[in-house]
Every structure is written in structure tokens, then in C-alpha cells.
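Suppose a colleague, Dr. K., hands you the sequence of a protein chain of 524 amino acids and asks what its three-dimensional shape might be. Before reaching for any lab equipment, you can write down a predicted structure in C-alpha cell form. Begin with the sequence itself:
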Amino acid sequence: MKKITLFCVLLSGFLLKGTAQTTYKDVAPIFYANCTTCHNPDGIGPMPLQNYSQTLAYAKLISTYIGGGLMPPWSPDTTYHRFVGERILNQTQKNTILNWIAAGSPAGDTTLAPVAPIYKNNYKLYGTPDLIAKIAPFTSNATTTDAYNCFVLPTNLPADRIIRAFEVVPGNPAIVHHVLIYMDTTGTEVNDLSGSCFNMPSSDVAIGGYAPGAQPTLYPGKAPLMIGTRLKKGCNIVLQIHYPFGTAGKVDSTQIRFFFYPAGTTGVREVSTKTFLQNWFLNIPANQVTVNTASVAVPATTSYSLFSSFPHQHKIGVSITDYAYKGTDTIPLVRVKKWDFRWQGYYTYPNLVKVPAGYTLFATHTYDNTSNNPNNFNNPPQTITAGTSTTNEMLFDSFQYLIYQPGDENINIAALLAGDTLLAVNNVTANSKIITNVFPNPFDQQIHIGYTLNAPGTVSIVIYNIQGKAVKALVQGQRVVPGYYENTWDGKNDEGTQLTSGVYFYSITSGKLKSSGKILLMRQ
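The predicted structure, expressed as C-alpha cells, is then:
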């Protein structure tokens, strides 16, 4: 009788917990992990979301944007190809936020929320850079037309160095449309601030670029893959910065933060950046939806290993699909079904993508030059042609790639980058505890065990029975970067046998941090 009474007490407690009101402490980890990298005082988001009062002020707007799939912004279609660091909320996270807002955004005890991340200068790479290339304060000269200015920044490198990572930090995010980064190996170029600088003859090596929403470029730096771009001794860094028309008079001081491999590092493979897919013959008639393409053949004797993809067009474009093919064989690369000009970047593949010799890289871009396109800046619509201005259009898809070596396609880029200390946001506070989100509890078929970490680490999750015996190693030594993670348990042990109803315990550990709790398995 005592056992039955104890079980009923436990069950009542779990049922009450399962119906407990969702408060700020429950949604804060989701905002911290998925929103605050942009929505902080120095970020590109229009308002910070780092505490309850800030979030409450925009609750209705948040509901609209999350419910409509507009936030977090992530353009690539995840059903076509996956990428590292996707900014997406799963349905459980969406429901948690939307239901919380629908219930009036109750505060609860806000002191139970995790420690909020603190960002400084919108840096996204941790530590002290080896080189900072920064333009002098510059006043935009984009009056009635877009301005393209080229800034030449000496490196004064006494010897060659290999780039391990870099990030572009706009001095004025509101006016920097894009930044293209080149290396002038001759060291002879000078500034061209005419507003019409589209390229420089000696800028012969492309390093990368920036567009709104772009993340830092971080290359794998340990076995089995070390890659990077070599900066030559005494070279210049050339930045082509695009300022949209109407920004004249506003001041910018964009910089690039470079992180190098230690001097003398060997075994680093060269990564190249190239716009393989271009079309400068676009003619997009008014009041029509037009499809344009571009293609290029991979050399017959050389295969490529693609590291990342950067599809690009302007405001009339509505969708993009890139793939490689030979005969009937097709290799999907990237697809954007709903193009958003405001959110672009290089998207890193979770595994290197092999494009064999003799294949063709192919791009399809769709342009909607009708009044149905809300981004159409002409009313009534006007014929649009290819060009560099925002009011022109582009088909300009770039890739970072290596020359293929056997086994490249089996290298797990996501695993190599996971937990990389350079990915920890600079000056972000670390939680003194692991914040968990375990539901539904009790459960029958499946339970979700979610947790949030604000510092990189190695995580293990183990399920124990009431006697303290480990029955399921759910996660073992998984390296993670700061963020929210979720695992599921189906009530089976390590051998795949269904366990009986009863009380179990979960334990989540990461270094010295630990979180544990009870879960109740109730078979129907």
C-alpha cells in the first residue's frame, strides 16, 4: 500500500509539473540561443531581446514574425541541402514561444532564467585577432546612385600567414550593403573612392565577402582537414564596399578581424573562392516572371570539394537553385525558395560536397518583375537589366572550394567545427548551470530532453533507473557550441529493449556543470 501511495504522489507531482504555466524562464533559453546574436545593443537587429522587459515590449511583433516563418532568418531550403549553423527553430521551440505570448507573456520568477549573453561590438569570433584591417572613418558618397568604393589596407606582414578564420564587422551596418575581400599580392594598389570601383587589376585573389546576416568564415583547423587561405608577405587587403544610394553623409569604419594558423603550421590545404556562376546578359521585362540560368563545366581532369555556397541576386529575384549534374545524375547544392535580399551569406556544407570532373555547375534564378513582388522598387514595373546597382539585377553565385582528394566527401565539417573555441561569441557570459527543458513529463512514447549552454563544451546525457543503474547513454561526449539542443528518448535501453513503466532519472553533464532530474515513463 505504501508503494502505491508513493507512486500516486510522484504521479500527481509530475502531472502538476506537466501542466505548469510557461513563463519567461522557459522561453529565455530559446531567445538567447537563437535571437540575441543579432538582437543585442551592438547587433544588426532593430531591438535587443536580452531580458524580460525587452522581450515583452515586442511580444506581438515576435509572435507575428515567428508565426509567419520570418524569424529567425534562414534562406536555404533545408529539404534540399543542410548547412552548418542553420538559424531555425524547431516546432516545439516555436510552439513554446507562441503559446507563451498567447497566454499574455507571463513573467513568472525571472530570476530563474539563465544568465543572459552579453555581446560587445557585435563580434562573433572569440579571442584576440592576429590582424585587424580597418578603414579610416569614411563618409558615404552614395547620393542618387549606389557607390562602390575600394579601400586598400596594408598588412605589413613580414612573412606569409595562413588565414584560419575571419569576420567582417561593419562600422555602420545600416549603410554597408556588402563587402568583397581581395588580396593584392603586388602591394601596389591605392584607394579608389570614386564610387565606381568595381574591381582592381592587382586584386588577384578572392578571400571572401560579407552581406547582411552573414556569419564569420571559420575553416576546419585539425585532422583530418586543415584548410585556409594564404596571405602573402607584404600584401594589401582590398575591400570593395557597396553603399546604397541615399546614404550620403553617413559615416562608416568597417573592419576585418583575421585569425591565423600559428606560424610554421604545415599540412594546410588551400581553399579558393570563386564566382563560378554568373550571367551579365539579364533582361527582365516588366510585368513578367522570368527564369535565367548560368552554367560552367568542371575541368575534365579535376574534381572539386565544395566547402560553402554563396548565392546572390538583388530585389527582383525571388528564388535560386544551384546544382551540379552530368547526364541524369544531379548533385543538389543550394536552393532558396523565398529569396530575401536582406539576409545573405556563405553557407557551409556539413560535409565537403564532391563535384566530379566533367560535371557541370548550374544555376537557375527566378525574377518576378511584376507588381505582385513587394520588393519591386518600380511602380509601375520597368525593364530590369544586369548590373551592379541595387536597382539592377544579378546572377552571381560563389563557392569556396578545394581541389578534391580521395575521401573528402566523408569528412564531417560540422563535427570538426563543433565546439571550436573561435565560435564562442566574444565577451559572452557563461551560465553557471545547465538550463534544461524536459517534456512531456510523464511520457509514453517519447520524451524531449532539451538543454541550453552559453559556452562551448563536451556534453553527455545518461538515463538511470531508480536503483541508480545507467540504462541508456543518450549522448556521449558530444562537442557543442553555445546554443539550445534537444534530444529524444523513446524509453528503450542501450540494447533496444522497451523499459517498464516507472521513475527514471536523466543526467546532463558538461565539464564541471551538471543538471539532473526525474522523468516518469508511463506505458499505456
